Amino acid sequence: MKEGLTFLRNFLKNQGQYVLVSLLIGKICAFLSSLFIIKLLPEHDFGKMSIVAALFAAFASCSGLGSHQSLLRFGSVTENEDQRKKLSGYLLRQGFMYQLLLTLVFLGFSVFYVTKYEDIFWIFGFFSIRFIGFYFYNYIQSELRINDKNRQFAKLNNVVNVLGLAILLILSYFFQLKGYLIAMAFTPFLSLFWFKMKGVSMKELPDIFNSKEIWQYALHTSGTTILSDALFSLDILLLGFLLNENAVASYRVVILIPSNVTFLALAFMQSDFPVLAKNYTDKNFIKNYISGYYKVFVPVCLGIFVVCAFFSKDILRLFFNEKYAENYILFIIFMFTFLMNILFRNLYGNLLSAVGKMSLNTKASFCSLVLLVTLSFILVPRYEILGMTLSVSITLIFSGFLLGYFFQKYLKELK
């Protein structure tokens, strides 16, 4: 109990409450956005948009080829403010070059879908604009976090999410899919109000940093994140390929709420990441952190699961309609899976990132992706949406246990 209270006190000391509220607002805005689009758009339009959004999610997670993640990791362990600024300027410049290349690759994927889905190229085009905006959004977030400005970080998220939702609702209501795409494409650029031009001209990395180490971390982070997020995108893409856009729409609805409960863990890990990075060799600190984390989140996860399992049909009827309530079993399976994510995959994946062991994250993500593809081609043709639900659930739980094993092995090696 004492460790749990200490865990919460440290969270508040790091201004984590602002991060928690901002992430909650972000999840609510994202949920309302999805709910509004589900009700507004025809099922075939929503299905096409979901296919592109799923691919975008995989690409967006490695914006700038992981440069903003390297900024977060190495900026957090750097005490000298001037060196942090130089590192930030260098990574911004270099990362943007990689971002432009990634955007072209993303747009190129449209050729695989244009023959099957009408007008999908234009959807790819608007998501490409959003992709560039996301690069600046991620960079500015990392810069605020390495400077212990969690309150400003939260304010940035709140403005982008709330104002973005308002713009999206207005444009979508009057212009349907076109309005949604325009709002979605330009919302991330609101973050530029927090952008500072200092140090942008930095072409060389300061001498105290190891270029190879920084870009290895960035590449592993990009690889890990794109493989990890592919687990939440590949299911949509495979359903679109193996079944149809109607199956995609139904599946997207049933996973929407469960996949968003992980924001609880994400709030703690985001606010605590700089502190964890600074103490990556302190075995007692890390063990106490894990113990406090479990004392807080085990009862929270149990409570959420009991409530959601008991009221599963009512929840689906309330937020969607009677048509989707018949998938309540899938809803319960996904809720269990994502709560297990909080206790294993989210915790140990972020801890491995904080201590600099991104290569282990990459290995776990690659194994998980192979498992998901294998299970999907076996189960989806036979069980359709249930088959994909089981494939994703087995894969995510497996990856959580594997990451836990990797981190415990690292912990034992610390003196």
TrEMBL record:
<protein>
    <submittedName>
        <fullName>Membrane protein involved in the export of O-antigen and teichoic acid</fullName>
    </submittedName>
</protein>
<feature type="transmembrane region" description="Helical">
    <location>
        <begin position="120"/>
        <end position="137"/>
    </location>
</feature>
<keyword id="KW-0812">Transmembrane</keyword>
<dbReference type="Pfam" id="PF01943">
    <property type="entry name" value="Polysacc_synt"/>
</dbReference>
<dbReference type="InterPro" id="IPR002797">
    <property type="entry name" value="Polysacc_synth"/>
</dbReference>
<feature type="transmembrane region" description="Helical">
    <location>
        <begin position="158"/>
        <end position="175"/>
    </location>
</feature>
<feature type="transmembrane region" description="Helical">
    <location>
        <begin position="95"/>
        <end position="114"/>
    </location>
</feature>
<feature type="transmembrane region" description="Helical">
    <location>
        <begin position="18"/>
        <end position="38"/>
    </location>
</feature>
<dbReference type="GO" id="GO:0005886">
    <property type="term" value="C:plasma membrane"/>
</dbReference>
<feature type="transmembrane region" description="Helical">
    <location>
        <begin position="249"/>
        <end position="269"/>
    </location>
</feature>
<feature type="transmembrane region" description="Helical">
    <location>
        <begin position="328"/>
        <end position="348"/>
    </location>
</feature>
<feature type="transmembrane region" description="Helical">
    <location>
        <begin position="360"/>
        <end position="379"/>
    </location>
</feature>
<keyword id="KW-1003">Cell membrane</keyword>
<keyword id="KW-0472">Membrane</keyword>
<feature type="transmembrane region" description="Helical">
    <location>
        <begin position="385"/>
        <end position="407"/>
    </location>
</feature>
<feature type="transmembrane region" description="Helical">
    <location>
        <begin position="50"/>
        <end position="74"/>
    </location>
</feature>
<dbReference type="InterPro" id="IPR050833">
    <property type="entry name" value="Poly_Biosynth_Transport"/>
</dbReference>
<feature type="transmembrane region" description="Helical">
    <location>
        <begin position="290"/>
        <end position="312"/>
    </location>
</feature>
<feature type="transmembrane region" description="Helical">
    <location>
        <begin position="217"/>
        <end position="243"/>
    </location>
</feature>
<keyword id="KW-1133">Transmembrane helix</keyword>
